[in-house]
Amino acid sequence: MTPESFLKSIGSSVLWKGFDRLAGLSKHIVIAAAIGLSAQLDVFYMGVALLGLLVFSWASMIDVVAVPGMVRAWQENRHEDFRRIAAGMFTLTLIGSLVLAVLLYTGRSGISAMAIGFEQERRQLLAEAIPWLLPVILLYIPMRLMGAVLRALRSFSPFYQAEFITALAVLICVWVYKEDGHVLLWSFSAGVTASFLFLLYKTHRFILPLANPFSPQVRGALNMVPGLLVLQGAQYIYVLTDRMFISFLPEGAVSALAYGFTLVSLLPLLIALNGSFITVFAEQKEISNKNARLNDLVSIAIFLGAGSTAFMLIAGQSMVQVMLERGVFTASDTASVAQAINAYAWMILPLFLIGSLDQVFQVEGKVGLMVRRTVLGLITNIILNAWFLFGLGWGLFGVAMATSISYWVMLLTGLASTRRLGYTIEKFRHTRWLAWNTASVFLVYTALNTLPVTVQLGVPSLFVAAFLIGVAMLLAGIFYRGYEQALIKATLNRIFRQGVQL
Fold it and tell me: What angle, 0 to 180 degrees and rounded to 10, lies between the N-to-C axes of helices 134-152 and 79-106?
């Protein structure tokens, strides 16, 4: 396999995740028009949140835990050790997934009770959803392990392609069978199955035949599992906690919250700065080089985060209106999703950075710092959720705002913790850069408010906001008097050269 550079990996991420997000958004459009913000959609998103805690957290942990060891083995030409780690961990994930599937299937009634605000009808629907999701439970963790194998080899594109295959399969199923009451569930299982087979074809020579899941090489890679599992589980508890609180609100609130988060996280997921960062970071030997990479990453995240946040605050409601408001999806549904977007938009910068920051701690073997930071954020989220929802009566907006604030708590605590590892976050440099970008997009916000009302709504709002914010970001990078000017220019030049080569 041909190794890919960090910049090329981001380009691949944008390309394939772009297709992935396009297919995913198309699915949302079809479903929104067919069933709106309904009990069926609430049950699907609550089911996905439960899988996040019980399945996806294991997958996220496995996805990163083996990468540093596999990277070292490959760089040192210990190819047999690399295969033992890859094949052994693949065997382990297959065994673990089978155990999880049995436990979740037999305990599905008790699991559905975790949706504490649901009435009996929606709880029953949630319990009935588990059998339809069994292929996801069985195959998702091994699929993510195969993605980790490819990342260790600097082959990032196939996993992004696999994510697109999942989204495309779901879209096709939803489009053809949109009247089927369970299509959201079984189409997800069909998509994951297709992606699993695609990645198996790409990685079979590294993971087959199956190997000892408890070999010394595998045990060495699993040293961080307890801390990482707590960490990844806590991250998915964020989503589950939000949906448990929102389950106390009327039907459709869970779906509105999910739609809002999906749209707000679109660009951070599309660009995926953390997709290849762990590989590039793990390859650095000198702490000075690692420190430079980390600070450059913070600068890029600020640049992208400021523009993305401004766009969602300015044009979020218009985006929902244009994309979703048709069929049984009403103007009041649009207003509900827009409420979530207005609160979730403030977490975009943490979304860009937290994944990569976690990878710094993982490479350094300091999982405990991540766990403490995440637990602090989780506690903040729970307290603010209860206060905003039951104390202040802020409803859906309050649940989303609690999550945004808690993500900032996690980000700032994580950045502060890097000092214990010998890194220096250049706070003054990044504060100036953030202020400069904020001022640039604020000028765009002021300019848009002076436009006629007809331009501030619908499709015109999206195009005008995207164009003006894009221009403001470009000018902010080119005319800034500081280190970031050279960083942005160099990055843009490399992107241009990469595009010409393609």
Answer: 160
